[in-house]
Fold:
Amino acid sequence: MSKSEVVFISTPGSIGNLVPLVEFAQFLVNHDPRLHATILIITMPQRPTINTYIQSRAAASATTINFLHLPIVDPLTEDEYQSSIAYLSLLIQKNKLHVKHALTELISSTESNPVVAFFVDMFCTSMIDVANELDVPCYMFFASPATFLNFMFHIPVLDAEISDDFVDLDTELTIPGFANSVPPMVLPTALLNKKGDAYACYLAHTARYKEPKGIVVNTFKELEPHALYTLATSDLPRVHAIGPVVDLNGVAQWQNPDRYESVVKWLDDQPPSSVVLLCFGSMGSLNGPQVREIAFGLERAGFRFLWALREPPKSNVYLPTDPTNVDEVLPDGFLERTCKLGLVCGWVPQVKILAHQAIGGFVSHCGWNSILESLWYGVPIATWPIYAEQQMNAFEMVKELGLAVEIRVDYREGSKIVMAEEVERSIKRLMDGDHGVRTRVKDMREKSRMALMENGSAYQALEDLIEELLPKV
Ligand code: UDP
Structure:
């Protein structure tokens, strides 16, 4: 059978962008056997974890998805960029010729299998040029929430209207897609100061957001009705809310299986909903004094815990690592005193852990994949954002949707430390509080599953998208 080819490219080195993009590709080809997917990979040798993921994923999906590794470009020098977003944007841009070559080959080698779409992600906007040159319909895959997509569209307007740095503003902002006014301090760190290449990068990307034919967002109507309605009624590319797309196998298949088994064995021995998971994303790590305050807070709260503790990377091009000696970063005697109460480990297979019945709460950095995963399993979150768009996600979860308990919505590197008393109070509120969050999260769990069922909102959105993608006969 001849198949229509859908091609994808994701920001290199970003688990949070790549994993849902791969899942979405799998979703498409599973849903309609007339489709086949090719994912173009820009390799980032500094992030080997991701390369391991790609290898295992490629083996698991060999018949439906082709992973095509682009040639490695010359390494960037430090005078070419200041921020990690500038590094990534430049790296992506330097791959344009390779991408053009790969896409041209795909087009000419598969005449009976037309290339029907090229999906770029939120920071791969330079690839829109390649799609245009080769006359391939270009779409965007957006792995963050619909509120953040509204915000991205609005950045050029804010930039034109407000000359001050956002960090200096003392008024809240009106942003389409948000029902509440938004405090400037929940904007991404990259945007707080106008000087610097991170701000310029965001502006350059968002300036191109109206160009794709459509934008696929990993969200669903029942979760973000207001933000999606705002997008649908604006003069913007059509938005397809096809989520939640979650990799339910998670990282268990591409990280140390022995460690995973020992953690699950420990969880099996804990009562239902009794354990709080603390995990801060693929790029999240906290400084020594903050780690100590969390430890004291956990001890005082007295709830069972599983803590994915990671050490800061050597530079922002690398990812955090598992601590070589946890004893060194934790308060004296902490591990002995809490040995019956909790486990401290490095990277955990988060999605598998959230699925475990012993988990009753999640202190999360509020990456969008983590939020979707916790909603899928009905686990309430306490918000502790660190980087990227997580402060806005935390604000949305707490203030807009009432689906999370607030620890902080504006925490970031360099913020005032969250003291042990506050950690203790928040964990007690998360695990025991009478605030309605747990009930609303359980309700959203059902809605997230229904969205994907036949005739659910996301199912319908996917059908409409496929109808648009496939050549008309
Ligand atoms: N993750 C994991 N174990 C960890 C940290 C992260 O499995 O110790 C997974 C998590 O389940 C999610 C992804 O990595 O699927 C992180 O994506 P998210 O959007 O939440 O945050 P990011 O890492 O992109 O900031």
